[in-house]
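The methods section describes the discrete structure representation at length, but only in general terms. An entry of this sort, consisting of the sequence and the corresponding backbone structure tokens, reads as follows:
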Amino acid sequence: MPRVFITGLGFVTSIGNDAATVTRNLRELRHGFEVFPPFQKPEIPVKVIGTIKDFATNSPDPEDWTFPAGYKIKRELLRTMAPNGLFAQCAMLQAVADARLTEPDISNAHTGLYAASGGSPYLLHYHNDRLNKVGVMRCSPLGIVASIAGTLNFNLIAAFKIQGSSCGFSSACASSAHAFGFALDDLQLGRQKRMFVVGAEDGNLDAILPFAGMRTLSLQTDPNLASRPFDAARDGFVGTGGGVALVLETEAEVVRRGVTPYAEVLGWGQASDGWNVAISHPEGSGSAAAMTLALRASGVAPEQVDYVNAHATSTLIGDISEARALRSVFQDSALRPAVSSTKALTGHGLSLAGVMESAFCALAIREGFIPGNAHLTKLDPECAGINILRTTENTPPKIVVKNSSGFGGANVALVFKRVA
């Protein structure tokens, strides 16, 4: 099967809106958390999120939005977007430039796009409320395409004139990792030559606050203490939004265009827990199975893995489940890979998380470092035996595994390799 490479990246995240800034903050373990003004009410127990800087999208009218001047987005495109669509559009423009793609490279039958987003609860609520208050014929004709779960892929496919494979993925926090895996399949099976993989979330009150009802969000008021994966004192995850776009290409396209890839994608695996609608299997059986399948598909032995970018969100149950899965897969303590969760810096991007953290892995591979696990003061005893980094290592990882998990026990593992 054709070899597949990552050739372009684009970022709108809580730790930076370009690759250079993101790389610096990953290396230096600088988080993107702030006290969030809409949460500062007595009846709201959550106070902190991972904020997106230099974008203002709190109006239901896209013409009121502001974003960095370097992006030129036509009015007719903005009118069909949710905030997550704006983030994704900007990330796509970065990824296109980073991969040095031309319009003919993008708009053809051999280039596709897979996307992941939970839609826009904010705009969906706004448009439904308007329908009920002023009547259906006073509603925006674009309200549906701007708000429902497929809004991200609708907009990107139209904006970039995508003619190849296209689909939106919905498996909660594993969504964009699933999109990545199926994009890899399309490339390895010869169905496509190039795939965009994109994830984005609004990251506002309506997208994040409902998780407080599940008792899964951190109640910390200090941004420096809010996201603590694997720490004994963790009390939940910190929500965030943004958008990340990634370009995958076959080796033939890489050679034809003369580009330098970030990393090779070796394979992937997926498995389900079959356990609970919202809680990971306590022994991490689904995550362990996904990793095992991914390593088998990649032709990689567990002892060859240098780094695992963990899904670990800083929840009480999820981190322990993943730790047990890691112990199961990487049994020889002397050969266990370095592990960290970059959600300690960004927060949890929900359906965005898989592609965002895969892009972080690509940066780490090409730039030659392994990010540490920030804010880890006292390791949860249940996570003992895992080689969790406290600080960044300036060591180039050769083989990297990225884990993602979602509601219903959906688990995905991706395997990347440093390009020699």
Observations:
- The mean pLDDT is 96.
- The longest strand covers residues 263-272.
